[in-house]
Design a protein that fits this description.
20% of the residues lie in helices and 34% in strands. The longest helix has 16 residues. The protein starts with a strand and ends with a strand.
């Protein structure tokens, strides 16, 4: 299956360290050779990179690894294809507009019968069940809320309900962002880690690389990283129970819905 990587931070932060670890799993330490993508939020904009080639061999991935793009929210994905051919239009993360915001989505898992659900305004460009599920979810959100709800928790509960409905159709691990929050749904496997003062050293599991975050951060920095599997082997990751939805804002967990 595919693997996910997300980040939420309270100040613009680069994800070079974690992305370096994930990149190795795309054909070197893992079998996810069927493309990769990453999205960085920058104010009201969203900068995205996609490549249907393995991330471990991708020149674009090496550019992203070296180019320290700073962002408050990041969503990334490496693909092991099971539905849809290997091509650019089937490469996550997918994006659409709602309420004048970029929404970004990446999924890990297989869904049965998802394409029987009726779609509205949003239509898939590729052939994956993942993009179809995203279009269906966003269409339902738009139908329920023609305008942004005043209370974020109202939207959170709707995303939770839609996630549960799709989760019944198979494996539904996903990362979603509306440019304000990072939503992480665990269908079977997802973990997260918050780094804040006092900062320490971190060592990647998939590459010979470590960093002392005390030398790289300010005392008030807070960063949460979400991944399918822990990316470091010397830090304590929180393993999400299946069927849960966690919401992160400004680097902190702000809400969680249990199974």
């Amino acid at each position: 299956m595919c693997e996910l990587l997300g980040m939420s931070a309270n100040v613009p932060t680069d994800i070079c360290f974690s992305f370096t670890g994930l990149m190795q799993r795309g054909g070197r330490t893992g079998p996810h050779r069927d493309g990769w993508g990453i999205a960085f939020y920058e104010g009201r904009g969203c900068r995205t990179f996609h490549d249907p080639n393995p991330s471990a061999e991708s020149e674009i991935a090496r550019l992203v690894q070296r180019y320290a793009i700073k962002s408050l929210i990041v969503v990334s994905h490496i693909r092991r294809a099971n539905r849809g051919r290997v091509c650019l239009e089937n490469t996550h993360p997918f994006s659409r507009e709602l309420w004048g915001r970029h929404w970004v989505f990446a999924h890990n898992g297989q869904l049965q019968g998802i394409k029987r659900l009726p779609l509205g305004l949003y239509q898939p460009i590729g052939t994956t069940d993942s993009e179809y599920a995203f279009c269906w979810m966003l269409g339902r959100i738009r139908q329920t809320f023609p305008e942004p709800p005043r209370r974020p928790a109202t939207l959170w509960r709707t995303i939770r309900a839609l996630s549960q409905e799709i989760n019944e159709r198979g494996v539904f691990n996903f990362l979603l962002s509306d440019a304000r929050y990072l939503y992480a749904h665990c269908g079977t496997q997802l973990s997260w880690l918050t780094r804040q003062a006092p900062f320490g050293k971190a060592r990647l599991s998939d590459a010979d690389m470590s960093v002392d975050f005390q030398q790289e951060t300010a005392p008030d920095d807070v960063v949460t990283v979400v991944a399918t599997r822990p990316l470091t082997d010397n830090e304590s990751w929180t393993v999400m129970p299946p069927g849960t939805l966690a919401i992160f804002g400004a680097g902190q967990p702000v809400a969680a819905f249990g199974s």
